[in-house]
UniProtKB/TrEMBL annotation:
Residues 1-29 form the signal peptide. This is Methyltransferase. Keywords: Methyltransferase, Signal, Transferase. SUPFAM superfamilies: S-adenosyl-L-methionine-dependent methyltransferases. GO terms for molecular function: methyltransferase activity. One of its GO terms (biological process) is methylation. It comes from Planctobacterium marinum. The keyword Ion transport does not apply. The keyword Transferase applies.
Length: 290
């Protein structure tokens, strides 16, 4: 005969067992995902992996809680350094959208040739082809600008990633509201429980606010812009921090590898830049305000 005490004990044991089983399943799934991501990262060409020590792709994507099968929008995908990793990791059940700056923004820089501007505008429609060269995962891929994202995408995106893409949006904010527009588009396409991941060249909070033309921003500037757009900070990380990068008020981020702007053939300057490495970067995670 089962007494009430034995029944209660049995129920408690079953509950604990179920919780442990669920925990183990989640842990195994998480570990499997990490191993899958690690394998993808380690399978890339050596020249791509050379920058992993500074970009920390596995730790960064894990921090952003990116999972296989998700729909992810990547701001300013450029040559596809992260796009290839994302396409393989998200897989055929996922979707990847490359979101470029609006076409009118390229001429605002003032130093791009007409030919180069045409190439950068064309990169938006060419994004699916770029991803196809980097991955055979069969993932759904589309390219847009921040002003051509269709309304059909509203509320459908799990993650939006701004990886070293915010400084130029902030650079032309006062002229054309570029950052405001990008964050509004981000808010609209993000699911209610979606997240926005940011990696951005960072200067110390003791520095003066700046427009981003040097490549750097302050974390407080970024957070304020996101809060004004309806987001709140979830977490921050030192994953991509580089304390060796201590720029002066006139230093640009492109003085460092891999750009080496201003270094030329000066071996001492290159040695000094290499001793610093790539830039110091903030890593932030945002969600929509509840």
């Amino acid at each position: 005969m089962i007494t009430k005490l034995k029944l209660a004990t049995l129920s408690k044991s079953l509950l604990i067992g179920s919780l442990l089983a669920a925990f183990s399943a989640n842990t195994l799934a998480h570990d499997h995902g990490n191993k899958a991501l690690q394998s993808i990262i380690e399978a890339r060409p050596a020249e791509m992996q050379a920058r992993d020590q500074y970009r920390n792709p596995q730790e960064t994507l894990d921090f952003f809680e990116v999972k296989p099968g998700m729909t992810v929008a990547e701001a300013l995908p450029g040559g596809g350094w992260y796009s290839g990793i994302l396409a393989d990791y998200l897989g055929k059940d996922g979707a990847l959208y490359g979101i470029n700056y609006v076409d009118s923004m390229w001429a605002r820089f003032g130093f791009f040739s007409e030919e180069r501007i045409t190439e950068m505008k064309a990169a938006t429609k060419a994004f699916p082809g770029l991803v196809a060269e980097l991955s055979d995962s069969g993932i759904a891929v589309e390219g847009y600008t921040f002003e051509t994202i269709p309304e059909a995408l509203d509320g459908t995106v799990d993650r939006v990633l701004f990886i070293r893409a915010l400084h130029n949006l902030n650079r032309f904010e006062s002229q054309a509201g570029t950052l405001t527009q990008a964050l509004k588009a981000t808010y609209n396409m993000l699911k209610s429980d979606g997240l926005v991941g940011v990696v951005q060249h960072a200067v110390a909070e003791s520095d003066a606010d700046n427009d981003g033309s040097r490549g750097y921003l302050k974390a407080s500037q970024v957070q304020a812009a996101f809060e004004a757009a309806g987001f709140e900070l979830v977490a921050s990380s030192d994953i991509n921090k580089n304390p060796k990068d201590e720029p002066t008020a006139s230093d640009i981020v492109w003085r460092l590898p891999p750009s080496y702007v201003g270094v030329g053939d000066d071996a001492d300057k290159k040695k000094a830049a290499d001793a610093i490495g790539e830039s110091n970067r903030m890593t932030l995670l945002f969600k929509k305000k509840s």
